[in-house]
Amino acid sequence: MSKQTAAPPSRAGAEEQSSTSVIDPPAEIDRQQLTRERDEAKKRQKDRFTGLNKEELINLYRQMLLIRRFEEKSAEAYVAGKIGGFCHLYIGQEAVAVGAISAIRKDDYVFASYREHGHALAKGMSARSIMAELFGKATGCSKGKGGSMHMFDKELGFLGGHAIVGGQIPLATGAAFASMYQGTDQVTLCFFGEAAVNQGAFHESLNMAQLWKIPCIYICENNQYGMGTSLERAMSLRDIAQKGCAYEVASEFVDGMDVLAVREAVMHAVERGRKESLPTLLEIRTYRFMGHSMSDPGKYRTRAEIEKYQERDPIKLFSASLLEQTIIDDKGLEEIDKKVREEVEDAFRFADESPLPDPEELYTDIYANPIDPSRDRNR
Amino acid sequence: MSTITIREALNQAIREELARDESVFIMGEEVAAYDGAYKVTKGLLHEFGPKRVIDTPITELGFAGLGVGAAMVGLRPIVEFMTFNFSILATDQIINSAAKMLYMSGGQFKIPIVFRGPGGSAFQVSSQHSQALESWYAYFPGLKVVMPSTPADAKGLLKSAIRDDDPVIFIEQERMYGIKGEVPDDPDFTIPLGVADIKREGTDVTIVARSLMVPVALKAADELEKQGVSCEVIDPRTIRPLDIDTIVESVKKTNRVVLAEESHPICGVNAEISMQIMERAFDYLDAPIKRVSSADVPMPYAKNLEDLAVPDVNKIVAAVREVAYLD
Q1: Which of A184, A290, A301, B236 is the most core-located residue (most Cβ within 10 A)?
Q2: CA atoms within 13 A on the CB side of A148
Q3: Contact B142/A182, CB-based, under 8 Å?
């Protein structure tokens, strides 16, 4: 009857799920409890250090910090009027993009939503090309035509930047389908927020992916809010990993504040994709420290709730682990921060000094094969 | 030359392009084992196998988006909608993904995909299965919209659409699959997109018609000839981009225009053609432009009401006589 049975939802690094529930946000902060939770998370993270060398570990830290500093600079540039439109920051969620993308090859594909600056950086795009795109400059990765929500890099396999909630899910399924069709062993990572899970596109894609054995890895970044609407106000079954069962898609729940837990879970999914050409659904629980976008008043959640998660800051957790494991010392961390800040400042200057798109660009890139009827009529 | 139906012409086009290019595949509801709801894909599963000819679940948004994603990384999908009515479910992927991907990626990701299937009025299937949607798709830069009216056009234009590097909306007509005509046998026979065809030459009135309205306009022209009115019938064949030059040339000769279409009148393609004629050839017009469209109502089921809703020979004849100031 059924070809294979989906793995029941497991819980990579998610042992504390109940304590991160948002159903009852705390009114006051229990400092002792927060410290206990953080120490437990650190202990779990320590067990995941095996198999990674010093350089790899430090690089994960550097990438997360680069995203953090890049986004801080983006916020500054937005307030200064350098960036227009919407600007959705990734601060707090860095471990998800960095951990996941560290588990794939350069020739694998990545799709993301409109909160994708971090994923683009993690896939290897330069801070310069992303910042210039935010500034709407000709030197941006999409020539200034896409902006914050539409970063692309064909060479690096970064396939966007998609701004209709859930819209990237069928697209990613299609790219992974193409890998299968072409007989390569590439996999596709598809990032989306938990609010996208309520869209039909999510369900239609998972059904096709398992039915046709498409090696797409669906990464639900559950930051617990779709704009200002909390998960419990929007979803009847909130255990998102469990939804994989509806389509026999293997699924897992992952602690998104632990970069190594994310990496480990995605590595398993990648293996399933490459070896068995099967999809995986990962529910990665995370939290955004900033508003939905730069114009978010933030009245839908408490200060205490935000502070609770800031205590689990993935960058702070990882730096503490690195120090404890003597992978790096304080001076080393400071050095990384200095270099990352320089990289971001350089990106800012580059974007600021870059030219605007040529007005003629308005009418380019609409068609790959533009048609001039008067030319073809005489053919 | 062979005399074949539009259905067979489309089948030949798909078969030849599947054989020509390994990156071409076709997917849709009932396209494989069932041989196509309208038999356009008859025999293709047998010839090319399930990798190239793929039955999908009823999941239009999903498989349209899957096709666009596959096109981003080098495949050339043909996505069949059993009818274009169901494409409405897939519009987010057609409009927001396919049409805009090249532009918003700064020219990095072209989307060579064909969305095809029957559209327009069908026989007594009521409101949800009988409607013309071309003006929706023609609205969006980034899409090309094609509507053939003869077997030769169907084959030549579909082959060009499959070879084209942009997303093409290819709307066939449910009532016309059985229409026969001569089609060249050359496997490299194609018709360029964006070029209108003068289906009948004339001197007194220009009738611009597409899809099902082409044979209807040609019958009206026959009738009008008996009444002493010479009509030129122009089929744009591609709605976007529109070959307005050919239309304007004809208007300069006849000075009178009737526009026929199956769309509703409000915001239809003819509203756009009319505007472009006004911009380009206002001084050549001897009478206001007249359009013949479907009634501005959802399509009814009852045969007598349906006949009233769809433009016919009599309505076109009356419109031509009106612009020629004969009544």
Answers
A1: B236
A2: 19
A3: no
